[in-house]
Amino acid sequence: MKAVFLDLQSLDCNDLNLAALDALFTDFAGYPATAPSEVSARIQDAKVVIVNKVLLDRAVLAAASKLKHICIAATGTNNVDLVAASELGISVSNCQAYGTDSVAQHVMTLMLALHTNLIQYNRAARDGQWASANQFCLLDYPIQELRGKTLGIVGYGNLGSGVAQLAGAFGMDVVIAQRAGGETVGGRLAMEVLLPQVDVLSLHCPLTEQTRDLIDAAAIAQMKPSAFIINAARGGVVNETDLADALRRGKLAGAATDVLTEEPPINGNPLLADDIPNLIITPHSAWGSIQARQRIVDQMVETVEGLKKGESIRWVN
C-alpha cells in the first residue's frame, strides 16, 4: 500500500512521532508542501493520500486511478471534492476534536493578555519606560481581573465548551448564544440579548452564510465599549474593516484574533494596519500544540488501521 502526505510541513515541525503511520504502508512519501501543478503526479500511484489543505478537486481525483482513501489531517473538508470522491469510490476521513485543549488554552491566553495589558507591559519593560519610573513598579496600563466578568460564547461545540470550562475556573460567568439560523435551544440567548451584557465575546462557530460578518459594526454597537472580542473561529465571522474601525474609535476596549479572511494574508488585511490599538493577532496557531498535532497523527493511524480491516473510522463520505 503506497501513501503520500502532500503537505507534511503544515502538521509536522520535526517534532512529531510518525513511526506508526509510516509502518502502515509499504511505501510512504511525505512532501513538505505540494504546488497545485504537482498534485496529480505525486498521487498518481498512491492508494492513500494524506492532505491538510492542498486542494483535491474532481479533475485531480479522476486522474488518480489507484486512489482508494483520502485522510484529511484536519476537521475541515472543504479542500476535497467530497461529491466527486464518492462518485469515484474514494472514501474520505477527517480528524476530530484533536485541538480542544490547545485552542481553549490559546483563547484564555489571549483573554488574559488583553485583561492584563501583557503586550504593553512587556514593551514598557524593554523600551526603557520601567527603567525611568520613579517607583519600583509601572502601572501605566489598566489591569483587570477575569473573576466576575461575563463571557459570551458563540459556537458551543467542543471548542466553545472547552473555553467555558476554563473560564469558569477563573470565576467568569458564561452565557451562550443561540446558533445562527438554528433551532432555539433553552438557556441560550439571542445575539441581541447576549451582546449588551458580555465583557468578553469568544467566537467558535463555523463560517456559514448565517455567520459570515456576524460581528459587524451593528453588532459591535450593541456591546459595551469596555468589552473584548476574541476570534478563534474563522476570519469571515468578523467584519475585519468594522472591527478595525471600532478599535480606532474606542468602541471596543480591545480584540484578539487567531484567524483572518485570507491565510496567509499575502494581500494584506485591514487588521494588520499599524494604527489599530489594543489588537493581538496570532497566525492561526491556536490549534497547533505538539500534543494536538500528535493526536492528528494518532487518529490517522486509527483510520488507516480500520481501513485495512474494512472499518470506516471518521469517514465523512
Automatic annotation (TrEMBL):
Record-listed E.C. numbers: 1.1.1.29
Classification via InterPro entries: D-iso_2-hydroxyacid_DH_PdxB, D-isomer_2_OHA_DH_cat_dom, D-isomer_DH_CS, D-isomer_DH_NAD-bd, NAD(P)-bd_dom_sf
Positions of the D-isomer specific 2-hydroxyacid dehydrogenase catalytic domain: 35-314
Keywords (A to Z) from UniProt: NAD, Oxidoreductase
Source organism, top-level taxon: Bacteria
D-isomer specific 2-hydroxyacid dehydrogenase NAD-binding domain segment(s): 108-286
An MF annotation (GO) of this entry: NAD binding
SUPFAM superfamilies xrefs: Formate/glycerate dehydrogenase catalytic domain-like, NAD(P)-binding Rossmann-fold domains
Protein family per UniProt: Belongs to the D-isomer specific 2-hydroxyacid dehydrogenase family.
Protein name, per record: Glycerate dehydrogenase
